[in-house]
Amino acid sequence: MPGRMGLALAGAILVVAAVLLPDRAEAQFGLRGGPVGVARFAVGHVIGLSRLRHSRMAVRGGRYRSAALRSQDPRGADRSQLSNPYVMRAALTAQAALAGWQGGRRPQGWWRHPDGSYGWVGPVFWPFAHDDLTNAIIFGDTTSLSLYGYGDFYAALFTPYAATELAAYTVPPGRRARKVPTAETLCEASDTGGLPVERIASAVAPNEAQRTALDELSSAWNAARDTIRTACPAQTPGNAAERLGLMRERIEAMIKAIDTMEAPLSKFVGLLNDDQKARLNALANERRAALASYQSKNADKNDIKNASKNADKNASKDAQAAKACQADYDPVSDENAQRQYEQLLQQQWPAADIATTLHLDEVARARFEVLQDTTLRTMQTLSACPTEPAATPQARLAAVKARLQTMLQAVGAITDAFDDFQADLSDEQKAGFEAIGPKRGA
């Protein structure tokens, strides 16, 4: 394993240790599900980093910076070159997300995904939503989709943007729009492609009836994309309740999009013979092989030089990460991990400071703890150790839909808890709560 990737993985392993739930914190916040589920949530993110190592490098280098911030469709940028899709994703979302945050001066934001991309870009939640469905269903690649969860719910509650920063994403096209892309631009630009019809046709060599079914599937795929686009925010969500509502709308649109795809996909695959089905499913393996080849060719010389030197250390770290996926793993016994988790929890959820700043009474404090508990539990409900993707597109579609439905349930639960928390707050207290997130990045 390359040296720099080893360093990144080492840092990520510390994150794994930092989110292991100790007995004291579990008792304090009533987090159900236990520490093993939280550990597995983090491990899934760590292992995902192993094939996303170039993302942060691309963001820092600004390779796609101009493409990310242009008002026109950025899909033409470097289209003639073989592009790592994760690099493009991280670069586009990072540059767009940070363009409107803190005056565009910050190198990275606290709500960033582990691969360097962002689930919230200004007022837009889940850019690349349609692409993520395509990658997961057709290519068996759920890497990006699996990164959505707890961190995005937390960012919806404590937005990193101030109101004026969010407003920059909704200004009409003009001079300023070249610096801060509009929400509409983000929704358009983040869809980098639809169903790879010709690639599928090349793989399965369809007869006339099969080609007709494939064209119908392509039309359904485009209709699904339009369904997701209609959930692009026309206005900036002004508070946490509106942001949670936007999350619900976007996830509902993705589920509706999947429903649009389901019958045409089953019809097309049902017309294929066994050999054609095998060739269709082989597309997923080809994608993984192509990405691995790209990363190998673009590995830094220093990484190659240090690979042998760090091999044993990295193997040990990999084993440590994989251990948390074992059924008998008990992170509570790790006292160092307990201390790290408590520190992280206090930094991320400063309940006492929030209660003092907002002058919360005992009832409001209790309701805030319920909100905190409900949000933290999404670490378990949306966690999963890495598994092999389902063997068929239909099975993968069902798995993706199930995960989105779980996310939708989580949004509903968090929304209910948040509504209860804010029920008796004054306007001044509500405004104070909304100011917490932007202050975090100051």
Short note summarizing the structure:
The chain has helices spanning 3-18, 23-29, 34-48, 54-61, 65-69, 85-99, 129-138, 150-157, 163-167, 183-189, 197-204, 208-229, 240-271, 274-297, 301-323, 335-348, 351-358, 362-376, 378-381, 393-422, 427-434, 436-440, and strands at residues 120-121, 124-125. The chain has 442 residues and is mostly helical.
Give the number of DSSP strands: 2
Structural class: mainly alpha
Overall helicity: 55-70%
Distance between the ends: 36 Å
> Spatial order of the strands in the main sheet?
1-2
**Beta-strand content:** under 5%
Global outline: globular
Order of helices and strands: HHHHHHEEHHHHHHHHHHHHHHHH
Radius of gyration over C-alpha positions, nearest whole angstrom: 22 Å
Main pleated sheet: 2 strands, antiparallel
The stretches of 5 or more residues where confidence is low (pLDDT under 50) are 1-37, 44-82, 300-305
Query: Please, how many helices?
Result: 22
Mean pLDDT: 75
Comma- or semicolon-separated keywords:
442 residues, two-stranded antiparallel sheet, 2 strands, 1% strand, disordered N terminus
